[in-house]
Amino acid sequence: MGTYIIRRFFLMLLTLFGISLLIFTMLRLVPGNIADIVFNAAGMIDVAEKAKLEKELGLDRPIPVQYVEWVSGLARGDLGYSYVSEKPAIDEILPRIPITAKLAGLALLFAVTFGVPLGVISAVKQNTTLDYVLRVISLSGLSLPSFWLGLLILMAFVAYFGAIPIYTNPPKGFWNTLWLFSIPAMAVGFRSSALVMRLTRSSMLEVLRQDYIRTARAKGAPARTVNYRHALRNALLPVVTVIGIEAAFLMGGLIVTETVFNIPGVARFLVEAIRWRDYPIVQNLVMFVAVVAVSINFLIDLLYAVLDPRIRYAS
Amino acid sequence: MNTKLGALTLVTFAFATLMFAQAGEPKHGGILRIYHRETPPSLSIHEEATFSVNIPAMGLYNNLVVYDQHKPQNSMGTIVPELADSWSVSSDNLALTFRLHQGVRWHDGQPFTSKDVKCTFDLLQGKAKDKFRKNPRKDLFNNIVEVTTNGDFEVTLHLKRPQPSLIAMLASGYTPVYPCHVSPAQMRTNPIGTGPFKFVEFKQNESIKLAKNENYWKKGLPYLDGIEFTIISNRATAVLAFVAGKVDMTFPTEMTKALIADIKKQDATAICEIGPINVSTNLIVNRENPPFNNVEVRKAMALALDRKAFIDIIYQGAGDVGGTLLPPPEGVWGMPPELLKTIPGYGDVQKDREQARAIMTKLGYGSNNPLKIKVSTRNLATYRDPAVVLIDQLKTIYIDAELDPVESSQWFAKVARNDYSVGLNLTGNGIDDPDQAFYENYACGSERNYTHYCNKELEALFDKQSVETDVEKRKKMVWDIDKKLQEDVARPILLHARSGTCWKPYVKNMTIMSNSAYNGYRYEDVWLDK
Questions:
Q1: Nearest by CB to B189, which of A86, A162, A268?
Q2: Which of A235, A258, B86, B202 could form a disulfide with A263 if both were Cys (CB 3.0 to 4.6 A apart)?
Q3: Is B382 on the interface with A (CB under 8 A)?
């Protein structure tokens, strides 16, 4: 196990190195840089002033030099300065992470709380009215675009309560935070819960047909024990994988939800930074999302062993 | 006679009292909440060229002179003193002297003096040691030879030639006075002004917060305790936030006619105004490459335009047909409708198109042999939508055009490289004044003269109108120039769009300017009746 963890850790570092190269190269391949955008906003191009700005920001240096400088800065914990706000990139990025983490965490909680039990019920009550209803709900969860659902929720709030649950100022206190984040979390969690539910259902159906489940039933084990202790635990392996992928996705892919509910999180900031070609922000934010994704995958691999002791990592 | 006069006085007094009672006495306090459509690049007005900056930042600063903040139509007659108590022009019209208000302090407590005015113009003209990152309006002040101070409270601008409109440029929201002791870099991140509001914080994608300047030099002002601009980039969310009362006002001049109707349906008490913003949608043709180096092709294109169709299709009728300058009644310098009708392309659309088809046939084009071109434009809805209508209209004169959407960041670079044949562009005017519009967009060699139109004779007329002090005489000269520009197909103007602003009824003293979207955001006497 120890060897496995060390090997996986080095593989993680290698993956992150590859990602850093990819981000850096792709960002330079996108047409235009901050100087182009800055002058574009003014409806003019002053070649001399533009060149001066590029020099000031170090954009005139060879690309490999810029890469080495970024990576070495990253290793020292120096993320550079945002080209737009002219503040340290770390000060721009750090406050946004907890905002997205709260939203993603709540959405995931919503997905697991509803997705797993409802998936089990749907499998256990296969081909009953309840199963059909739950399947229709899960299908709608997968089909409804989250921006549409988000807007619908906002419109309903305005029409029926005369209030709008959007972020305009940082919430004060636990309950205010919970209230502010729970509605967008539900909007985004609905899709995730539908995914989890469908996967739990199909995985459960497969496990419920296994011999050891039949044996457990034949031994007279109560249905609850068979379903939740024997079947669910084994059915959870693919579900955990999907939850992990969802968690990684939610940390960087909430652009639509953050925009509709006006949440100043990581994803919206990333899109804005790309628009401005604010390289220090984009590079470091994408690296952050990559670190989260790779770490979650690593943790999930470890979780497999806990869920299914038959899995061994030595080889 | 005395009785009549007494009765009239009584009626006037009663009317005034009634109006006062209706409007209510201004109240101090409260935070005005406005949504902002995007994160502005910075709050340093001199370095930016979008009203996304003026709207939150104008309250931080003062100008030497400013347009009266409660007269919607900006004109020479609505310019009022601000940091300058008064101004005078020398007998040869070559020196403009300002006597400055005493006792004004910057937000950091430093005294404001004539040196700050000199520093501001030195920065604008690139003469200062410190430099702006970019200086989009430096050309506006080319006529200033030197700025001299006489003691701490008098400053004189020395001009190369008389320029009556210089005062209009100084009154624009784009021309605040900057402090000598604060660097341009700091002005971008932590601006210091003399204005009614102090900078508190600016968080990208989140908010811009301003707080009341307790030591504002205009006694008793501002009424508000502060202003909060919440950045809401999604317009649907922003409109719902306004309806739900999360913000007191929409982003100025951001609402379409359809959105205003929607708002009024949901909140009948909302006050909404729709008007021109002095931004024209125009056609740019690369006159250096064939076949557009042939003036006949350009003329045919101008004759194909159905301007009313653009306005009806894209803006549901909320727009105006005009030339370079914003048309009346809101525009001060625009050509009157009877003159517009005499310009080819502004009259009967069917007849004009027949004429255009005849030109194209003569040049060898026809329905079986159309001229194939690309219409390049910025890949933004406000650019793309009229480009699509344009493509449809060009088909009527045997021009088979294809849309070429250009990534927004590459648009001006592409135009500057002359890497286009036909394009569709938007041009905003900070002030409703011919000097700015003519020199910036049509003078030979100007950076914003995208079509490289160059007519030295006409440029001489630019100078002639610029020195004319008689407004009516100047207007006639301006009309002649504008007419000639349209006839020469220099940059055919398709339309001047109108857009709207809404605010809650308890927001008092809010005036939206009708011929500029850049000049009316000092907010010093705006108050909340809550």
A1: A86
A2: A258
A3: no
Does this complex have an ipTM over 0.85? Answer: yes
SS3 string, B193-216, reads CCCCEEEEEEECCCEEEEEECCCC
3-state secondary structure of B127: coil
CA-nearest of A172, A182, A300 to A245 is: A300
Q: Provide, as residue numbers in chain A, all residues whose Cβ is less than 8 Å from the Cβ of B206.
A: 264
- Contact status of B183 with chain A (Cβ, < 8 Å): no
pLDDT tens, position by position, B124-162: 999 999 999 888 888 889 999 999 999 999 999 999 999
CB B430 within 8 A of CB B172: yes
Most B CBs within 10 Å, among A44, A84, A153, A270, to test the B interface: A44
8 Å CB contact between B422 and B401: yes
A267 phi and psi angles, rounded to 5 deg: -65, -45
Would the CB atoms of B237 and A261 count as touching at under 8 Å? yes
Q: Which of B434, B439, B432, B524 is nearest to B475 (CA)?
A: B434
Token pair belonging to B450: 């995208």
- Say how far apart CA A197 and CA B95 lie, in whole Å: 78
The partner residue sitting opposite A155, judged by closest CB among B205, B240, B409, is B240
**Taking a C-beta distance cutoff of 8 angstroms, is the pair B230, A168 a contact?**
yes
Q: Which of B41, B49, B133 has its CB closest to that of A43?
A: B49
Question: What are the chain A neighbours of B282 within 8 Å (beta carbons)?
Answer: none
User: Strand, coil or helix: what is B291?
Assistant: coil
Please, are residues B112 and B199 in contact by the beta-carbon 8 Å criterion? Answer: no
* pTM, 2 dp: 0.89
